Amino acid sequence: MPVDDRIQALVDRGFLGVEEAAVLRRSEPLLPRPTADRMIENVIGVFGLPLGVAPNFLVNDRDYLVPMVVEEPSIVAGVSGAAKVVRDSGGFHATSSEPILIGQVQVVGIENPDEAVQSLFDAQKDLLHIANECHPNLVARGGGARRMEFFKYRLPDGDWTVVLHLLVNTCDAMGANVVNTMCEGIAPAVESLTNGNVVLRILSNLADQSIVSAKARISLAALEGSAFSAEFVRDGIVLANDFAVADPYRAATHNKGIMNGIDAVAIATGNDWRAIEAGVHAYAVKGGAYRSLTDWSVADNGDLVGELSIPLKVGIVGGSLSSNPGARIGLALTGVESASELAQLMAAIGLAQNFAALRALVTDGIQKGHMRLHARSVAASANVPEALFDQVVNEMIDSGDIKTWKAEELTRTAAPPADAAPAPLENAATGEACGKVILLGEHAVVYDRHALALPLPGAVKVEIAERESGMNLVVPDWDIADDWIAGGKVPEGAAAVISLIMQALEVDHRGFDIRVSSKIPIGVGLGSSAAFAVASIRAFCSLLGITRTDIETDRLAFRCEKLTHGNPSGVDNNLATFGEPVLYSRTAGTRTRPIALREAPPIVVASSGVRGSTLAMVEGVRRRFDKNEALYTTLFDEIDEMAVAGATALREGDYELLGALMNVCHGYLNAIEVSTPELETMIGIAREAGAAGAKLTGAGGGGSIVALCPGKVDVVADALAQSGYDIYRVQ
Hints:
It is a single chain. By secondary structure, this protein is α+β, with helices and mostly antiparallel strands. The strands form five sheets. Strands 11, 12, 13, 14, 15 and 16 form a six-stranded mixed sheet that branches. The longest helix has 24 residues, at 339-362. The protein is globular, with a radius of gyration of 32 Å. The chain starts with a helix and ends with a strand.
């Protein structure tokens, strides 16, 4: 599945909003360079790592999609497969203690450590009060300094030091700054009570007061494989874990595998993976020897039981989370509502990753995955094209020659991938059609008001050639490849449009190959569906020698638009057919009112890349219209007046007036709830760059904007392009 389709699937299933999806689709680092420059010193760029998602996680009877930032292949797949096995056996069960972070205040220069400890012990109530006064908002949220612990140690020089532990519930924040501030706040009082000197006042990353546990019980049947018995796999996992308990050299790699999963989620959600690593590994050695963090055993009924308990202090607010858009997307994907819930999910991830690694070790061996990693690295160094990448990797592994020369040889001799652009059709006829951009009048035009629109020339080109039977439709630009045979499956989407055209032309009994190229994306408000319909009609007519007037083509394209969008206005097919600037209304007598222009208007069109549904947006406006008809009638009347005035301004080249009308019209479209945060961002960029007017164009809900830029076309276009948006200029 292509990356864009994965993103759309997340949107369709409610894991991502359209704004987050747009950020991912721009194929740029999720962290903008100016933001990075504010986060650390001496920034020269932004270093990228892959962001993937792991499905199948059932934790405490709740489903999760888990974001993971990791460069090593097989980790996401391995943990997802492990999660599915556990899901089929009832899922993970996780618990967590109070989210406590420890702050340390170290005192030296003490003559009597016991007296110093007693003084601190007696004054703990007052010290806790001082600490909580440093962060009253935290206390108001249910957190704050809870209690204290006291320790004394003899230093290498023989002197004593006393260490006060301040235990703080940081709620949903990781809490480093909070705890450090509290330690600073109580330091003067500590010095006064002990007659010593405070040297260090800082948090500890050994968060052993914030323990998270995950448990999984896997049925014996779920471990059965084609080459290994369930008992063999179960007992091998238990033995491998026992080895990690006994041998610190094995334990180091064993625990690293656990952290493969936990670190990947920590990075994806903007948490401090270094602090987590330090705390976890310190915890692994608390018993005096470094050992496994997991425990795998056999239940009385023969099931495999795994448990993981680790210190894990994470946050979902504060720190860099507010400034890092990638972290915000990661947290949104998890759907967690508290830091404790995130910690429990991460513990489940760690246990799943450990299970996946141990199962691989005791069966096929983990080297298989590492060989794939090596092969992918070699393919990357050989500059293997993306379309051939997986094919070359697989063939190198099969051959046993994972070398640069082999990758280069396979690239030269590789067959074209299945999704490569098809070869031109022989004896084909062609048809072209315009896209559209609406300057004024969206949605109002559905209610018999005017819309002012411009064509996007040469937007879609269709080639059609005859074949023996059926239909083969390929649209590489829209990721469409469809085969349809009469009497077979009911065609959908673009294939349904072709089927309707073939029926109308009475050629649905014949076979055709259809190839489509498009300069505009599908579903972004630029009239792609109407342009596709008109170009297809023209190609069919050219191929078959059928004569149809533009009016007849327009009418048939309108039927196609009704099939696609339900209740279209007709403006899209009008622009696609006639290719002229138009003040359009679907009422009789004003159906086509072309506008003669003195010059090409200084227009920039930018696409967010977010697909919207015209049908859904039109239906949404209809529902709101029905609830408040009087208000919406007034709004549509005013939009209509702006469209008519805008036509005169466009004809006369009065771009100042036209820009002002566009800005006001966008305000009305926002009011009827068809704009999005992403579109508002794009409009803001255009206006700041000098656009006289900027607004959404089309149905909204994603899609595109149009900007009127007299004397600033290049400036506005560059500003939008540098922000990651696709640009189209009206010529």
